[in-house]
Amino acid sequence: MHEDMEKVLITEEEIARRVRELGAEISRDYAGKELLVVGILKGAVIFMADLVRCLNIPVRLDFMAVSSYGTSSESSGVVRILKDLEQNIEGLDVLIVEDIVDTGLTLNYLRENLLTRGPASLKICTLLDKPSRRKVNVQVDYNGFVIPDEFVVGYGLDYDGRYRHLRDILILKREVYSGKEQREN
Ligand code: PRP
Ligand code: MN
Ligand code: MG
């Protein structure tokens, strides 16, 4: 295990099994349709890459990047689009893919924003749900794992841009981030 990590929270094998289950469920729900999968940069990229390869329906991919304003430790809830979708989603079946729902501010904003564009349907898939930190209610349609209030990295999730490439989901040692930025991810 990486020296900055306290312990493994979810192993690579557990993630792979759950991602296959989610892929099967989503494929059943959208049978006969084409899905536009929208990945939210950067945290969602690893999960998205694995998830879409577990879908057996026609799929297209697009990406958005957003940033939330605020101090380093508290998000203000004001979200800014850094990179928008490349296509018009009016009339399309859209699935937002995220790595984690934490306060819910990012996904709440994305849902409201994309709904104004008139998709045929809009659902949300997250790998991780950390309900203890929620500030706004977000309806998540597909979730991989509910996790405790620990600072997790790996499988796309970062601390200060690092550790996204690690294959497991790991709890970061407190000494690595204490005294620095407290905000998750
Ligand atoms: C993280 C994470 C989610 C969001 C969740 O992204 O990947 O997108 O925060 O937090 P919330 O529920 O409190 O809004 P971040 O802004 O760190 O960008 P990144 O994906 O590039 O790491
Ligand atoms: Mn993110
Ligand atoms: Mg982050």
From TrEMBL:
Catalytic reaction annotation: GMP + diphosphate = guanine + 5-phospho-alpha-D-ribose 1-diphosphate; IMP + diphosphate = hypoxanthine + 5-phospho-alpha-D-ribose 1-diphosphate
Sequence ranges assigned to domain Phosphoribosyltransferase in this UniProt record: 13-159
Cell compartment(s), UniProt: Cytoplasm
Keyword vocabulary terms for this entry: Cytoplasm, Glycosyltransferase, Magnesium, Metal-binding, Nucleotide-binding, Purine salvage, Transferase
Main location, first listed in the record: cytoplasm
EC class: transferase
Any Gene Ontology CC annotation: cytosol
One GO BP: IMP salvage
EC number: 2.4.2.8
Transferase listed as a keyword: yes
GO function term, MF aspect, one: hypoxanthine phosphoribosyltransferase activity
Pathway in which the depicted protein is active: Purine metabolism; GMP biosynthesis via salvage pathway; GMP from guanine: step 1/1; Purine metabolism; IMP biosynthesis via salvage pathway; IMP from hypoxanthine: step 1/1
Domain of life (superkingdom): Bacteria
Cofactor: Mg(2+)
PANTHER family for this protein: HYPOXANTHINE PHOSPHORIBOSYLTRANSFERASE, HYPOXANTHINE-GUANINE PHOSPHORIBOSYLTRANSFERASE
Family according to the record: Belongs to the purine/pyrimidine phosphoribosyltransferase family.
Biological function: Purine salvage pathway enzyme that catalyzes the transfer of the ribosyl-5-phosphate group from 5-phospho-alpha-D-ribose 1-diphosphate (PRPP) to the N9 position of the 6-oxopurines hypoxanthine and guanine to form the corresponding ribonucleotides IMP (inosine 5'-monophosphate) and GMP (guanosine 5'-monophosphate), with the release of PPi.
NCBIfam families: HGPRTase
Record's protein name: Hypoxanthine phosphoribosyltransferase
Source organism of the structure: Desulfofundulus kuznetsovii (strain DSM 6115 / VKM B-1805 / 17) (Desulfotomaculum kuznetsovii)
